[in-house]
Amino acid sequence: MKSQPDLKLLATFLAVVRRGSMAEAAAELGYVPSAVSQHIAALERDIGVELIVRRPGSRLILTAAGRSLAGATETLFDATARFQDAAHRIARREIAELRVGTYPSAMSHLLPDVLSTLKARRPGPRVRVVVVETHEGLPRVKSGDLDLLIAYRYLPEDPPAPSDDALTITVLGREELVLVTRAEPAHPRPVDLAACLEREWVSGHAHTPDRRLLHRWAGELGIAPQVTLETEDLHSMLVMIRAGLAVGLIPATLLGAGRDTGVERVALPPGTAPLHREILAVSRPGARPPVVDELVRLLAGAVERAQATGGFGIG
């Protein structure tokens, strides 16, 4: 028996099974009847068993082996058809699942509306979302584990570098960083920066991007904030600030749509340059599936709306 039967012979065999006649199978396939008979004989030689009982003047009868082969062949051809359909979709850059990585605050304040809009616009692949910080997500994009990463960049020299040939980087926009302190309803006067210099500050760990940006900004202003509370969790930072335990720089999107309750902006000296972080979409080079391009457009629109409203809220 051959390890791999001839698919052409199997297709002829299935036509004979469906039609119950070699002549009718020949008409369906566009062969002469003798060619169909030859195909069946060749297949029986390859398999090593009789598949069809031929009786003059009556319809063909499948043997037990023929019935088993017919079932297996239908399964094979069905799988082949599904494979071809999938291959065609892949060739058109359609995919079954999109894996997206995102930093935590984008997961809670940026992605929900964007994914809801995407789902309402078009049926498409399942979107699997993984919460991951930028420095952890970039290698996963390069390895193929993530198809798209929503990332941030606090300083121009931070990764991802624009010159990285292993990545395609789309700048979605910039997100304002706001210096906030605990709101004091009993004292409605704005809190200025000078009043915060003796307070404790909250920021990321020593070498995280937000901490390095804070030190660079503070150096330009000639101040030395004392960071005594360290965390990479922005929501924990806000809890500390609302409790009056610290002052800190918070991305403006965390303060929108009523989420700024309990905190207030610190008034900065005139002429102080505003702080921002870049919001990026990162993927691998080459043609991207259409759903990725649409998702990137929706993200860019969401960031643009946030900028138009002063950075507060996604809209």
Tell me about this structure.
- This protein has 315 residues and is an alpha/beta fold.
- It has two domains: 7-91, Winged helix-like DNA-binding domain superfamily/Winged helix DNA-binding domain (Arc Repressor Mutant, subunit A), CATH 1.10.10; 97-308, 3-Layer(aba) Sandwich (D-Maltodextrin-Binding Protein, domain 2).
- The protein is built from eleven helices and twelve strands.
- It has helices spanning 7-19, 22-29, 33-47, 64-91, 104-109, 111-121, 134-143, 193-196, 209-221, 234-242, 290-308, and strands at 52-53, 61-62, 97-102, 126-131, 148-153, 168-182, 191-192, 200-203, 226-230, 248-251, 263-267, 275-283.
- Helix 9 (209-221) links the parallel strand 8 and strand 9.
- It starts with 6 loop residues before the first helix and ends in a 7-residue tail after the last helix.
- The relative contact order is 0.13.
- Residues 311-315 have low confidence and may be disordered.
Helices, by number, come to: 11
Low-confidence stretches: 311-315
What class would the helix/strand composition place it in? alpha/beta
Count of discrete structural domains? 2
Q: In angstroms, what separates the terminal alpha carbons?
A: 67 Å
Relative helix content? 40-55%
> What is the name of the CATH class of the largest domain?
Alpha Beta
The topology string of helices and strands comes to HHHEEHEHHEHEEEHEHEHEEEH
Rounded to an integer in angstroms, the radius of gyration calculated over CA atoms is 32 Å
**Could you give a short account of the major beta sheet?**
8 strands, mixed
- Topology, number of strands: 12
Arithmetic mean pLDDT? 85
Strand content: 15-25%
Task: Give the CATH topology of the largest domain.
Answer: D-Maltodextrin-Binding Protein, domain 2
Oligomeric nature of the chains: single chain
What's the shape? rod-shaped
- Tell me which CATH architecture of the largest domain applies here: 3-Layer(aba) Sandwich
